[in-house]
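Students often ask why we bother predicting the structure of a whole assembly rather than each chain alone. The short answer is interfaces. A chain on its own may look different once its partners are present, and contacts between molecules only exist in the joint model. In this exercise we take four input lines together and write out one structure for the complete complex. Read the inputs first and try to guess which parts will touch.
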Amino acid sequence: MSVTIRDVAAYADVSVATVSRLLNGSKAVRTETAERIHQAIEILGFRPNIVGRSLKTSRTMMLGVVIPSLANPVFADTVSGIETETRQEGYTLLFGVSGYDADDEIRAVEALLRYRVDGLVLTVVNPERNAALDLLDASGVPYALVYNQPSRPGTTTVTVDNETAGRMVAESFASFGHHRLAMISGRFSASDRASARRDGFLAGARARGLADPVVLEVDFDSHDLEGALASLFAPEAGAPSAVFCSNDMLAISVIGGLGRLGLRVPEDVSVFGFDGIAVGAHMHPTLATVVQPSREMGREAARQLVGRLNGGLPAGPVILPYTLRSGETVGNACQPSPTVSRAPDHSVQQGKHAP
Amino acid sequence: MSVTIRDVAAYADVSVATVSRLLNGSKAVRTETAERIHQAIEILGFRPNIVGRSLKTSRTMMLGVVIPSLANPVFADTVSGIETETRQEGYTLLFGVSGYDADDEIRAVEALLRYRVDGLVLTVVNPERNAALDLLDASGVPYALVYNQPSRPGTTTVTVDNETAGRMVAESFASFGHHRLAMISGRFSASDRASARRDGFLAGARARGLADPVVLEVDFDSHDLEGALASLFAPEAGAPSAVFCSNDMLAISVIGGLGRLGLRVPEDVSVFGFDGIAVGAHMHPTLATVVQPSREMGREAARQLVGRLNGGLPAGPVILPYTLRSGETVGNACQPSPTVSRAPDHSVQQGKHAP
DNA sequence: AGGGCCAGTGTAAACGTTTACCTTGTGAAT
DNA sequence: ATTCACAAGGTAAACGTTTACACTGGCCCT
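Now the answer. The structure tokens for the assembled complex follow.
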């Protein structure tokens, strides 16, 4: 149907091998011949068929990407980072969405493997005891994880120290005088990192001698949280004054829900998010959050993966630094004065690097 | 290297044709034989190679997606819509990013064509006189546009009536008593829809007898707009009291910039956005905006494309309804009273359908 | 003069599928 | 008993590349 390398060869009066060699620069071609071939390509409008090439070379120059959702900008940023990093290496991204679901994860990975992607970068619900990753390990196709907790030996994982970050959030709340903490999180079964953040948060609260925070699990895509919030804030006596949300999108929903419940942020309730999505800094009140370098995490994961594809050895976990960004959603506890309390300077606090 | 259909055939003691036929259900296979083949597949861990299949069938079951950027949630939503719609048809998405740049657009499209995608859905800078689309037309690969203005005859385009929407924004500003309007937009050369919105906005202002709004172009990825804003709001006499931003991300940046300039929204300046991204409704003040059904637009474009791939004829433009969402960023003009002015009910106003 | 080397090119066999075309066996219809 | 139709399966030729191997001249060495 369309014009093939054979047509080009015939038109330029050379063999297909010569055309192929010119195209790939795999062997020298006389400049005069090259000229003729280039003309033929131009005139005939030849477009190399990567499918044919892939079949022969068993390299597709496609990289698989599997993320839980595009609705969360944090993943969009990551994909964007992966894209810019791999594009210049000549790769194109093939896309899978898992919807925070282990079965869909398997389905997506299996599909990408059938397409014979050269490698993939993904975020899974939980890397330990994960069927999709077992599939990948068995296939021998290299991959890199982003955001997940390092738990598989020999697996490249790019992430931040979620647990310590969670602890810092508790510290921050405590330093603002909060005693009754709570955490609202997406399902732990669907997010190992949320679990780690909770562990750190609880440990941090305990270290400060505070009562164990109430922990509330919600669905990742839930937008109306008023029911859950109402129950959490019902017992006026024991209602928390500070809430840690496992990610920024959730925090934004929570702030909205609190507003509809008549609770003001930060006067009545302080809120901390996680991720550092761009809009958090632009909303009012600005969102206090743990900033992950999402785009850079994507880039780094891509870099690691490409490194392995070029024969490099699998690196261990890569822990990138996070940052605490102070915001107007966190205020002092127990001071129902109408004046907005000014937060002590707490910005740009460096996270830990890998040990 | 990996196990092929030939291995399966040998193990099950049948010909490769039979295995292939079973896999594709293209012809009947005795149940007993099918059983044996399935066992062989299971035991050997056979995973069909889509590359081989594609080469033979000249269908890759991949769809190309080209968008300007992932940083804008509106495109992330659209991709998400495309994904859910096409996934169930058995397609997987191959990804290209153009960065609002015509040359990169060509590069992305050319790359996807080499991969022999079965079709593509894209948003281009401007569909008229667009080299990337010329490439596509010449290739004969079907495609659908999203967000772009319908301008190419015979090209499926899914969009909203941007011009009328722009007019409605002007109307809305006028009804709040604003006389001096302005528009801040991404480069018109990089967005035909921004141009359409401006045209409508100007026409609307004129229809209300207002002075022509000042129009300010900025880069799409610009985050610090203070310079531009400072100049726009410098002449205290002629400073606008209402600003229409060509998209929500820009509106959010503008609100932030205004704040740093000491201008309050909506007390000093009213702001209208465009797109209806989710966070707009969650921020404070809530963002007044024109809501496009982004996800649905992606789905619809995908639906149209799949329809054509199944032999359907190219449909004309599909104009989906938009909605005006009122928000706290719009207030009454010229009333520097400290009390927040309550907006008249202006919500959920239906846009026009296709003629 | 003979050999060796190298640049430049051609030939043809893969890569993993699908599918047009054949072959066989079986049962029903004549 | 012959024919016919049909279900089930096999054979082998594509699809568009890459690349191992072979070949030809020309040049440089001795």
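Check your guess against this: Chain A touches chain B through 51 residues (CB under 8 Å).
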